[in-house]
Amino acid sequence: MGIARTKRGVLPLAAVSALTLALSACGGSGSNEGEGGGEAAADCSAYASYGTFDGAEVSVYSTITDLEAERLEDSWVDFEGCTGIDVVYEGSNEFETQIGVRAQAGNPPDIAIIPQPGLLAQHARAGYLKPAPAEVEALVDENWSEDWKSYGTVDGTFYAAPMLASVKGYIWYVPSTFEEKGWEVPQTWDEMMTLTQTIADEGTMKPWCAGFEAGEATGWPGTDWIEDAVLRQAGPEVYDQWINHEIPFNDPQIAEAFDAVGAIVKNEDYVNGGFGDVRSILSTTVEEGGQPVLDGSCAMHHQATFQAANWPEGTNVAEDGDVWAFITPGEEAGAGAITGGGEFVAAYADRDEVKAFQQYMASADFANNRVEQGAAISANKGLDPALAQNPLDRQSIELLQDENTVFRFDASDLMPGAVGANSFWSGIVEWINGASTEQVLDSIESSWPKE
Amino acid sequence: MEDFGEKFVQVGVALAIFAGVVGLIMLLVDRAPKSFRDKATVVGFLLPAAVLLAIGLVGPAVQTTFLAFTDRNGDPNGLDNFVWMFTQPEALVTLRNTLLWVVLVPLLSTVIGLAYAVFIDRARGEKALKALVFMPMAISMVGAGVIWRFVYAYRGGEQEQIGLLNQLLVWFGGEPKQFLLDAPENTFFLIAVMIWIQTGFAMVILSAAIKGIPMEIVEAARLDGASAWQQFRSITVPSIRGALIVVVTTITIGTLKVFDIVRTMTAGNFETSVVANEMYTQAFRANEPGRGAALALVLFLMVLPVVIYNARQLKKQREIR
Questions:
Q1: Which among A163, A158, A152 has a CA at the least distance from the CA of A120?
Q2: C or N: which end of chain A has fewer Cβ atoms within 10 Å?
Q3: From A27, which residue of chain B is nearest by alpha-carbon distance?
Q4: Domain ABC transmembrane type-1: where (chain B) (predicted)?
């Protein structure tokens, strides 16, 4: 009995202790090493000012994944080679929620590339972010406009330098059709409305087509339309007041912008080429929305630079190509006001190697290296537009760099989530579905979070 | 490949931990003095489950309850979230829709499933007929949502239709209809999808129950000259009462939690939102975790009576046996 008993007792015990061993053995494995260092590049003189940090590591976390991430990593290979800093990059589709979790848990990356100024401000106010070093601020003062710097500034402290950008408010059209029919690219909003009426009168195609369907985000292309109208008609001051809720959402000036856009997208004679009536905008996906432009059942489509990726493969995007775009015109010809988006490089650590990386990211060298790889633009003034890989990128860069251009960040990205990512979208849906401007604006206004 | 190996090691370690913990518990229980070995056995085997439940279920539930009384910044705000829920027109629409779902889906799925089960009982090709109705059950809710979105798809009158229903409408000389956009009937078009899925479930369970009715009773009724309807009313339904209750309550609970169908088909737009969908939207998109938690709490309170009734019913049946 005694022996049997011991045997029975020992077996499970042995299992437990073996397991403890196994556990401790597998503790610290994993984590993909970054490409690391690489061979030293041919010319390191441009990187001499950053100093050298042998074996230092900087972790970077962002929303950028896949091909875009590869291009981003390629753009700092030389920096890694010359400074000896190993940049460990991680991209995630869950960035927006995960960055909050990691910061709260005391496990943030050294650098986060944040696309929403609102999120940036949240983290700065929570005390997670380190203010940008003086060298970075100097670079931003030199390379970026005041507008751009202000999006990286929270309560008077400058935290994050801008990185890349996108330009919204392009209107896509087929140049050969315009030429054939004798239509001119409109220079003012009124000309655009006249052209719209002309196309509708001719009757061969509807002037506009649109698709707002995007699952839970249905309606967002409509918010871009409204933002373009507010910025162009009411001006940048009103635009800023609108974002900061210094004027109510149902202010008459905002209502005017809604009505100006509504004159197009809620007019059965003007939409929805290739799909049906006004309400078919809501059942047409964002990706499909512009396609009728190519087959001639609609003349114009309003969408940001990234519409270029929605055209079928092999579509030539150029002034003399299959499809081209002009920027939504303002009240007066040549008035340059554009909306867009961008990312910001924020730091959670202030080690010297992190500061060096921040400096590099704010420099014109980075912008040039990245844009050269294609499918990217930046508002960095040191960027050479000739490096852009397609005509549209070049045009966008020139617009962003133009001293006279007023740039404003996508308003819905700056508003509180309850509005910018919820009631503004669903308001647009109700509005297209038949609700009046007044009704929709009152409803959005009532959803604005009270402090 | 390296990644795969790593995952494999993790699975192995997890299994080893499980085996180790079970082994340890067995050892301790076995070593316990005879006087309270029975108690030690019960405690030893229930404790791990209880601990895991406390961590994974009770803890978050309590946390959610507290969250329901806080605002966006995590400060307590009393009953504000509930006031919002029962006064905002959009939130009221959500509650109304949930009510519609909960009444219609269990009722219609069960009635249709029962009728179908009775009609095909002992019919030729019963198996094939059953499989046809049961098949939607095998499709995920998201899959069903996507399929039915194509069925309801809309194109203008002058365009080629791509949706089945609208094509039929056009063939019969009608105008195409925006099935998913026209409130309030769009909610019914969504409910139809859930019924399409759940009818198969009801049919299979009820059919099995019908087969379990003793032949003697049925034959006795027949000899007494009962009509088909009388047989159904007085023999079939009372005999399968237990199965009916299980079916209705199970579908009710599933319906209260419905999320996938609404989210894939309309994302809660066009006045079709339901509580579970609104909960997600408020908590994760609108950045209002308090409101989301309040909705979750209300959803919990709505499901609770059904669960209690279900459990009671099961207990009663066991007592009868």
A1: A152
A2: N
A3: B10
A4: 95-310
Rounded CA-CA distance A284/A276 in Å is 10
Determine, for residues B287 and A418 on separate chains, whether the beta-carbon distance falls below 8 Å.
yes
Tell me if B20 and A16 make a contact (CB, 8 A cut-off). yes
Q: Provide φ and ψ at A154, rounded to 5°.
A: -125, 125
Residues 148-167, chain B: which have Cβ within 8 Å of A? 153-159
Protein fold of A170-327+416-447: D-Maltodextrin-Binding Protein; domain 2 (3.40.190)
Could you tell me if residue A68 is left (phi over 0), alpha (psi between -120 and 50 degrees) or otherwise beta?
alpha
Angstrom CA distances, A208 to A226, A267, B179, B220, B312, stand at 16, 10, 24, 73, 61
Q: Give A154: exposed, middle or buried? Use CB within 10 Å, 0-12, 13-18, 19+.
A: buried
Q: What is the rounded distance in angstroms from the CA atom of residue A148 to the CA atom of residue A160?
A: 10
Q: Do A433 and B20 touch (CB under 8 A)?
A: no
CB A438 within 8 A of CB A250: yes
What is the maximum span of chain B, computed from C-alpha positions, in angstroms? 86
- What's the pLDDT score for residue A92? 84
Higher pLDDT, B19 or A119: B19
Q: What is the DSSP string of B63-74?
A: HHHHHTTB-TTS
**Average pLDDT rounded to a whole number, residues A277-296:** 89
Contacts of A418 in chain B (CB under 8 A): 72, 286-288
The burial class, CB within 10 Å (0-12 / 13-18 / 19+), for B51 is: exposed
Count of helices and strands (H, E) across chain B:
16, 0
Q: Compute the distance between CA of residue B42 and CA of residue B49 in angstroms, rounded to an integer.
A: 12
Strand, coil or helix: B10: helix
Q: pTM for the whole thing?
A: 0.78
Is the Cβ pair A277, B24 closer than 8 Å?
Answer: no
Same fold, A49-167+341-409 and A170-327+416-447: yes
The alpha carbon dihedral of B282, B283, B289, B294 has a sign of positive
Q: Is the dihedral of CA B304, B81, B295, B55 positive or negative?
A: negative
Strand, helix or coil at B253?
Answer: helix
Residues of chain B with pLDDT under 50: 1
Residue A216 is nearest to which of B156, B285, B288, comparing CB atoms? B285
> Is residue A27 pLDDT above 60, yes or no?
no
In the numeric block, the tokens 């074996």 are attached to A55
**pLDDT tens track for A195-224:** 999 999 998 899 999 999 887 788 889 999
Domain extents in chain A? 49-167+341-409, 170-327+416-447
ipTM of the prediction: 0.76
What is the dihedral sign for C-alpha B112, B117, B119, B120?
positive
Task: Give the CB-side neighbour count of residue A122, counting CA atoms within 13 A.
Answer: 20
Task: Report yes or no: A296 at the B interface, CB cutoff 8 Å.
Answer: no
DSSP state of A250: T
Using DSSP, state whether B175 is helix, strand or coil.
coil
Q: What is the pLDDT of residue B114?
A: 94
